[in-house]
Specification:
With 413 residues, this protein is mainly alpha-helical. It has 17 helices and two strands. It starts with a helix and ends in a 24-residue tail after the last helix.
Length: 413
């Protein structure tokens, strides 16, 4: 069951581990390679890789199949499907290669063997960009105290590694569509509204998260946290899973903020999980507009009622899944003194958001709880709405009637 859990966590790019000693002390090089392949597949998503292979070796494809793959990879049109998928693969491998090159000078100082330094650089770069949260540095992730590898680094190398990690996490959590537009000529950009929503929401969450962590962990908390640790926590909660602080020592406020950030996650068509930045933008901004009695207009565009309803449906379904998962784990661990209600809710949010942050109780969970976390990781990676589309293809279709019902304003609140 433990190997199945690691396989699920790798494929869903989560990072939760049932091994307290760290995967580097459990799996040999062959096992680590298998993990890395699963992380890469999970980061790109299986359907993206399948589309890439099919379009690479198939000259002709039926219109039905092209439509299926276009919807599956969130391409804008049938004609853009092939180019979109190939660009995703090129962007992914390019950023991961650059990340490995930038990390190599750090790990060559920490390892005696050049081969170990190269492999660690590659593994960390892929795992970071895919927001997987797995590392082969030891059992304490990026927490320096007690980690033999990190203790060998100079202070500037340690903070340099954190900076590269945050950059890779942010790029991995931004939509591939946004990345393509950023590096495209201004006149050729097609997703201007999506770009503004994703980038502005991401910036607000990073700044707000850092500020709140500074308040809870530095100003009013008992932790001797630094600004760099608060910034790193704000970034890593966006489905990355690396940590420079002991999550079990976070204040209650810090854990609540972490859960909120883990629930939101990254952006659509990225390697991140969660309900996505666009969803929280639509809900909060539509609420703001509703309270002011105005139409939902942003960036000179009017957003549809369907987008708002879909966003709210996603939040409600996700909340129900998290609640059910929490209840199941609490029941399964009723006699487990290691797992408190606070630890259980933190694990549930981390699994659904495919984050991988843990208060350290994952290795002590029973088999039933491990299965629950695997299900949550699967839902979090695929997306609840996408999952239900498999069983109901009409979920995105708008019903057209030849008549209209009388509109009724029912009392709310």
């Amino acid at each position: 069951m433990k190997d199945f859990f690691i396989a699920c966590s790798s494929t869903c790019v989560t990072g939760l581990s049932v091994y307290s000693e760290g995967v580097v002390n459990v799996y040999n090089l062959g096992g680590q390679i298998v993990m890395l392949v699963m992380i890469q597949i999970g980061g790109l998503s299986f359907i993206t890789l399948l589309t890439f292979v099919v379009t690479l070796f198939t000259r002709r494809m039926s219109m039905r199949n092209r439509l299926f793959f276009t919807q599956a990879v969130s391409a804008t049109s049938l004609g853009d499907m092939t180019r979109f998928v190939r660009n995703v693969v090129i962007i992914t491998f390019s950023i991961e290669f650059i990340g490995a090159v930038l990390l190599f000078p750090v790990f060559i100082s920490a390892y005696d063997d050049v081969g170990d330094a190269i492999w660690t650089s590659i593994f960390q770069s892929v795992s970071t960009f895919c927001n997987a949260g797995f590392d082969i540095l030891g059992s304490t992730s990026y927490v320096r105290e007690g980690n033999e590898i990190l203790m060998r680094l100079a202070d500037w190398q340690y903070y340099y590694m954190q900076a590269i990690t945050m950059i890779l996490v942010i790029f991995g959590g931004i939509s591939f569509l946004v990345i393509m537009d950023i590096f495209s000529p201004k006149k050729n950009r097609r997703n201007k509204v999506l770009n503004k929503v994703v980038l502005s929401t991401t910036l607000v969450l990073l700044v707000a998260g850092t500020g709140l962590f500074c308040l809870t962990e530095m100003a009013f908390g008992d932790n001797d946290a630094t600004f760099m640790q608060c910034l790193f926590q704000s970034v890593t909660c966006r489905t990355a899973g690396f940590s420079t602080m002991d999550q079990s020592q976070l204040s209650t406020g810090g854990k609540v903020i972490s859960c909120i950030l883990m629930f939101i996650g990254g952006s659509p068509t990225s390697t991140a999980g969660g309900i996505k930045t666009t969803t929280i933008f639509v809900i909060i901004y539509s609420l703001y507009k509703t309270l002011r009695g105005k139409q939902f207009v942003a960036f000179n565009r009017r957003f549809s009622y369907r987008a708002t309803a879909r966003a709210m449906s996603l939040v409600v379904i996700s909340g129900i899944l998290i609640l059910v998962g929490y209840i199941c784990i609490v029941e399964f661990e009723a006699h487990n003194e290691m797992v408190t209600s606070g630890n259980a809710i933190y694990e549930v949010f981390s699994a659904f958001g495919t984050v991988g942050l843990s208060t350290g109780v994952t290795p002590y969970l029973t088999t039933g709880s491990e299965i629950v976390l695997c299900i949550l990781m699967l839902f979090g990676r695929i997306g609840p709405v996408t999952f239900f589309q498999v069983f109901n293809r009409d979920i995105d279709k708008e019903e057209h009637l030849h008549y209209e019902y009388v509109e009724e304003d029912i009392l709310i609140g």
